[in-house]
Specification:
The complex is a heterotrimer of chains A (260), B (305) and C (369). With 260 residues, chain A is α/β, with parallel strands linked by helices. Helix content of chain A is 41%, strand content 23%. Chain A has eleven helices and ten strands. In chain A, strand 4 and strand 5 form a beta hairpin. Chain A is globular and about 60 Å long. By secondary structure, chain B is mostly helical. Helix content of chain B is 70%, strand content 4%. In chain B, a hairpin with a 2-residue loop joins strand 2 (138-142) and strand 3. The longest helix of chain B is centred in the first third of the chain and has 31 residues, at 2-32. By secondary structure, chain C is mainly alpha-helical. Chain C has a domain at 48-284. Chain C has 16 helices and no strands. Chain C has helices spanning 7-13, 18-47, 49-74, 82-105, 117-144, 149-168, 177-182, 185-188, 207-225, 228-238, 240-245, 250-273, 287-300, 305-321, 329-343, 358-368. The longest helix of chain C has 30 residues, at 18-47. The mean pLDDT of chain C is 88. Classes of the chains: A alpha/beta (260), B mainly alpha (305), C mainly alpha (369). The interface between A and C is large, with 55 and 46 residues. The structure holds adenosine-5'-triphosphate and magnesium ion. The site of magnesium ion (MG) has 3 residues of chain A, from helix 1.
Amino acid sequence: MTGILEVQGVSIAFGGLKAVQDFRLSLREGGLQGLIGPNGAGKTTVFNLLTGVYRPDSGTVSLGGHNLIGLKPHQIARAGMARTFQNIRLFADLTVLDNIRIASHARTWTSTLASVLRTPGAIAAESAITEHAMELLDVLGLADRAQETARNLPYGDQRRLEIARALALDPEVLLLDEPAAGMNPQEKIALRGLIRTVRERFSLSVLLIEHDMGLVMDLCEQITVLDHGTVIADGSPESVQGNPRVIEAYLGAPSAEVSA
Amino acid sequence: MTKLLQTLMDGVSVGSLYALIALGYTMVYGILKFINFAHSDIFMLGAWVSFTLATLMGWTSDAPWIAGPAVICGSMLICGTIGFVIERLAYRPLRAAPRINVLITAIGVSLFLENVGQLEYVFGTRPQRMPSLLPDTVLASVAGVSIRLVDVLVIGIAFSLMGALEYLVFSTKLGRAMRAVSHDLKTASLMGIDVDRVISITFIIGSSLAAAAGFLTAAKYPSINQPAHSNWILFGLKAFVAAVVGGIGNVRGAMAGGLMIGLVEMFGAAFFSPNLRDVYVFTLLIVVLLIKPDGLLGRATVEKV
Amino acid sequence: MARESGLKARAAALAPEPMTVLKQSVLPLVAAFVIPLIFHFGIGPSVGAYPSKVLLDIGINVVLAVSLNLVNGFTGQFSIGHAGFMAVGGYTAGLVTYYGGYRIWGDSLPHGGFLGAGEMLFLVATIAAALSAAAFGYLVGLPSLRLRGDYLALVTLGFGEIVRVMIQQTSDIATDATEIAATSWPSLLWKVGGALGFTGLPFYTSLFWVWLWVSLTVLVASRLKTSTHGRAFLSIREDEIAAEAMGIPTTTIKVRAFVMSAAFAGVAGSLFAHEVGTTLNPGELGFQKSFEVVIMVVLGGMGSVSGCVLAAIVVTVLPELLRSVDEYRMVAYALTLILMMILRPQGLFGLREIWEIWPFKALFRSEAK
Ligand SMILES: Nc1ncnc2c1ncn2[C@@H]1O[C@H](COP(=O)(O)OP(=O)(O)OP(=O)(O)O)[C@@H](O)[C@H]1O
Ligand SMILES: [Mg+2]
């Protein structure tokens, strides 16, 4: 059985630093999988490799059976892979609504000329984009902020806007890079529900990077653990939690301390 | 053969002027990551300040031997100060601003210097003749090529200044601080380097080198155009092209780039058409950027996401 | 391979009412033709020759500023070679009306009255100007895609200079009707006057044509800004990496911005070339002119169409009012530019339009929704 997202033997090095080595992953359709590891383990780099920001030195990535290696980021996005950014990258000077409508651009069919001429078709397309965006904002609880400038949103709202924007692409796979970072406990609890809801409602498969272990263990049915760019464990939350290598990676190896 | 040697000589001579100016561009870019458009105006000021100093001192004809060195040092000092002031007033408030804003400010500073210079009681708009402070004698003739003292001095002074800078950047504590700031401004300041001071010094050095180039240009081509004359900006821009071609942020790259641009321009002018000089330079720029976007000696950079 | 988004189905259910189409689509187009007529037959004759000339200059600068705004404001790229595109357009149009006029009528004088045969030739010439400038925009846009912001600035500047120098190399204008009739088009291409400029062009540029193009430029830019295509431009300015991740083909869009911007600069070049009291010469269209347009865009607000229009008006009119202190004009511009960047870096209006700002907001609200 193959998953919707299949990753095999993916590696990349920056200069001498082997940031990710022989990474593998299989994301089940409709699955919710965690990607964890200590700071600098290479998790964000994996997302960058999956979304085409970096091109892997070796390895294969396929989405729904289609090869993604060599595609540009926007092509990968259009193929159905959406992401959020760890260090929020919203379109800061634009409104919340526009942030989302931009992601719908990939799904529009009107030509520039039609837009400029304001043909009835173009007007209808714009209404459809707006309606769709407002629906998403509603789901994410941001509807009353639609006209606000993204820059002025509180931190937690910015993170949720990132998710809403990714959803506007109508993706099959959603990559979330530390969506709970900087959120307070209540917001985290709400986020937990939110991730479940959107996965159901938009029938997504989700890959989640998160440092909050409670969140990850509770949400994910499968977890991959990275350390120094390599996969050191892979399995159910329970098996990963009990894995001595994982504990060592998080607590630091006693032998390393001696030799240091 | 004679033509070849002559062109070589011209190319190296102009190229070393480009290199001197390019150093200022490249040092600023290396640290603050923006094109200091006003740098070509400092170069222009270098020439005009030299002219003004020489006239004020009455060294219009039969100048004593001390005139040349005194004027070049005076001009470097004044322009260094101006560079310092510009950085403090115009660029420092924008340290954290988007680069496009700094770039626009630099254009603003450039326009400001040009147009203030044009005012009647500053330098005016009439072209002036630079008094010959460096004796313009033919030293020797080799294979039909006359070696003029001016050219020798231009090349000599330019290369000594570049040598001094090379020593400063690579062999002194200050140079190490400059390289650290250029490599990573934030980390450098965390490591206790006084970043503001390093940046100020960079502007002072870059501006005084440009002033030296201004003086040498005025000595080599004694008719000085009005401050807003496009020749100044073009000359400066070509120096920036040299910095980019060599690999921006790289001191040796700027020198190599300067010489290369000088040679390309002069050989193009001598063997194809003299009217298309600028075209050769900008074409070279586009070709280099397309083949190696980080310049000949530059390092590739990847933006972290 | 991507799943069906349902946007199309949604759109099908949202077909606009005829009244909406009329209001949003048709009326502005009608206005775009009526306003120039008002300028031409109403305002122009009543204000007299000199103010009319200023109105022509304003219009041309508006076209320049609003078109540069597509690249510098909307897309966040930094082009400082706009005068180069203007020159390409101006010379293209000049070739059409001058030598075309000779081929057709045996001279280069204006023929026919308002909307007569001569003005139709001028229309063709202006469209040709837009197309040739657009082609150059494509050429400049392509290499720029691989370059980061300030290198792009340098390349556009270099492009402008190359254009200027090449024009300086051209040879004298042909003035003899029989000689022109006997010369082939390709060799006429090179006879545009060199450094002295392309003189003797017919004066077709009138308030009607200038303000027609102003209306069209403003209409295109503002409709773009409020459409999905314009938002794609804006996303690049905001964050290129995020834009790519959201499926925006940033390279294609950047080239598109360059091409559109250049096309309108070409139009402005054509209008400039056929205006009374200007000469189309390479000296006029150097980087100083490009900088002037940049100043308008920066002052008005990068991304604000109405802000650019306003800035173009101010930058054109102020020097006319301050003729006595003309030498301080550029000093004042320069200081404004620097202070602006320090105090209000987004320009007067930033991304917003004038009617989105407080005192006007109330006035326009009823109309907006
Ligand atoms: N473009 C790049 N150039 C050089 N090194 C890079 C680049 N991108 C990432 N790295 C390095 O790769 C390593 C992995 O970084 P990455 O951001 O993927 O870690 P991470 O697991 O996401 O960490 P965190 O939990 O802190 O977000 C780090 O050492 C980082 O410095
Ligand atoms: Mg990370």
